[in-house]
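step=encode ok
step=design start
structure_in=
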């Protein structure tokens, strides 16, 4: 089977790339570091520095991609949104598009009671609400301070909580643009929206989508760091010639570019498996996340090495993409976690 984008998916991806180039340049990501926790995110408030991107993505239909048409969305699948999450990674977009438009929308669409889905899905699609998804053992969520609701997964139970039902504590992160918050909450019968067999399925699918969303963003980050470095070594000269003409530099960049390019079909394969509910979807997700974490980390270290001293400065754009990579590489399971997951699935 050949995993590649359709012509329509390519057109949509290119449109999103252009939109993010205009609305979320590196200066906007850098500005997000200067705000208070979650100040720059989406619909919940803030000063508008990155809200422009969020609003534009909503208008284009990206935030409602998984939302059924009867709830104001496009009614599409994992295969359609995952290539766009690659572009969100390429831009280092701080907004929680993956958590709200992908993980939360998918969970509410597939497993929430009808009144709950009818209440939240239209708001997600329009960009009027951000819904974050958290998992047991992972209490820190990005953009928590501006979330309109939280879907907290605990074992086989899914709880829907309003901001008033959780306690948020700002947490320092290697990537300040993520506006990380610790979310403390207590379960109650009134907050439970899925449990039992349905709940376990909902939690497992949500985790797989969260991991795949991170993998897709890591692909975009890896591509951006390779492109940034190629541009730098082409212009930077030493001994009267471009640094990029040195064989050692060429080899390092080729290794990084090759590693990132090999992840892309794995991400598309995992998206296909989730969209079609195949039995090995979780294995394909773990294959993608393990390789994405490794490849993007290699791209980051290679970029830093090729840039030299300037790569260590916060004034230079490279650190925005490196630090997002470091944050996402271990998010929803690092490479070792997902390799173990694949091994456990394959062994009798």
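sequence_out=
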């Amino acid at each position: 089977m050949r995993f590649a984008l359709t012509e329509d998916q390519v057109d949509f991806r290119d449109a999103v790339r252009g939109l993010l180039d205009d609305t979320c340049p590196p200066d906007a990501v850098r500005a997000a570091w200067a705000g208070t926790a979650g100040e720059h995110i989406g619909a919940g408030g803030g000063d508008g520095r990155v809200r422009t991107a969020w609003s534009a993505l909503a208008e284009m239909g990206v935030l409602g991609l998984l939302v059924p048409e009867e709830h104001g969305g496009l009614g599409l699948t994992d295969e359609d949104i995952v290539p766009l999450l690659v572009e969100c990674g390429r831009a280092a977009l701080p907004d929680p598009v993956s958590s709200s438009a992908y993980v939360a929308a998918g969970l509410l669409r597939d497993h929430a009671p009808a009144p709950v889905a009818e209440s939240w899905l239209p708001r997600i699609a329009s960009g009027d609400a951000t819904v974050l998804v958290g998992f047991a053992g992972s209490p820190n969520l990005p953009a928590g301070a501006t979330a309109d609701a939280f879907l907290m997964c605990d074992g086989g139970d899914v709880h829907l909580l309003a901001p008033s039902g959780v306690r948020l504590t700002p947490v320092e992160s290697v990537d300040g643009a993520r506006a990380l918050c610790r979310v403390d909450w207590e379960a109650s019968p009134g907050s439970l929206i899925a449990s039992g067999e349905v709940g376990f399925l909902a939690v497992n699918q949500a985790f797989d989508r969260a991991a795949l969303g991170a993998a897709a963003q890591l692909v975009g980050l890896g591509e951006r760091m390779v492109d940034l470095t190629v541009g730098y070594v082409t212009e930077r000269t030493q001994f009267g010639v471009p640094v990029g003409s040195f064989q050692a530099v060429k080899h390092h960049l080729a290794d990084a570019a090759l590693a990132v390019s090999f992840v892309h079909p794995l991400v598309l394969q995992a998206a296909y498996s989730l969209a079609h509910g195949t039995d090995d979807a979780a294995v394909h997700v773990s294959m993608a996340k393990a390789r994405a974490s490794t490849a993007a980390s290699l791209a980051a270290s290679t970029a830093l090495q090729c840039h030299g001293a300037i790569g260590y400065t916060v004034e230079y754009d490279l650190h925005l993409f490196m630090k997002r990579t470091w944050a996402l590489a271990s998010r929803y399971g690092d490479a070792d976690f997902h390799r173990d997951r694949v091994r456990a699935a394959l062994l009798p």
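step=design ok
step=annotate ok -> Residues 36-50 have pLDDT under 50 and may be disordered.
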